[in-house]
């Protein structure tokens, strides 16, 4: 098991290193093609003094001559960037000169809260609906579950969010004004936008909506995996022993169906990162997705690179955890 973990960890580090270098190279290429982003520090059409421009370039590590040569990978700035990240120094923004580390301290917790509710929603609904459909294979319930999840998955997440805000949240808030106080739990749960004073409560519904992304895919994966195990010999033996259906489903069917399900959860978790941008934008949640989107609009190169770096780390870590869960569920995998 130890060799398996070390091998997977080294593969994850190699993958992360390649991804980070590609992000850095794309940033360097953008600077080489579009021009020096340090000019944004002075704003508008103002032409800065050369000495002041050189000072700003040194401040934001843009003074390396490689940024003037199109196609140069700028290896030295990449190594310096990694060293700064390792030391906890993520630099500052061009607009406003704010510390990026402080911004991350505000944005990351909100995105983590969002993913807590979305992941729980995705896993619980997919497991319940997939198991229910598998137990009623070929019946009305089976077809209803598949049709409903496909319908939900076919609607863009931003459309569901807008429908929730304007059709549910806003009218419900007005209608229930005399029933519950806006500062109460229910008033904050169905609030049409994010409230920083109630960071957990006002993220519940957006998290549930984001969790619907990929629900059809994971539900059908759960259903197919359990149908395969329902016809296996060990399930037939368990039924012959007279075990209850609930025990057979939980202990034998669900447990032996987890490997493909874990794969689907890992894939959909990475897919939800893109949905977080829309969710945070519509609901006004100050999270990583909204930060990256705003940084792209303002041409905040450093902030974009930092945000994408953290997203890449999250995806690589989730993939590593999926591999380790594989080994825990099926010991034969670690010897392959």
UniProtKB/TrEMBL annotation:
The chain crosses the membrane at residues 114-134, 155-176, 198-218, 265-285, 305-329. Coiled coil: none annotated. GO terms for cellular component: plasma membrane. Gene3D superfamilies: MetI-like. Pfam families: BPD_transp_1. Its main location: membrane. It is found in: Cell membrane. The keyword Chaperone does not apply. It is a multi-pass membrane protein. GO terms for biological process: transmembrane transport. Keywords: Cell membrane, Membrane, Transmembrane, Transmembrane helix, Transport. InterPro entries: MetI-like, MetI-like_sf. SUPFAM superfamilies: MetI-like. Residues 108-326 form the ABC transmembrane type-1 domain. The keyword Transmembrane applies. PANTHER family: INNER MEMBRANE ABC TRANSPORTER, OLIGOPEPTIDE TRANSPORT SYSTEM PERMEASE PROTEIN APPB. Belongs to the binding-protein-dependent transport system permease family. This is ABC transporter permease. It comes from Glycomyces buryatensis.
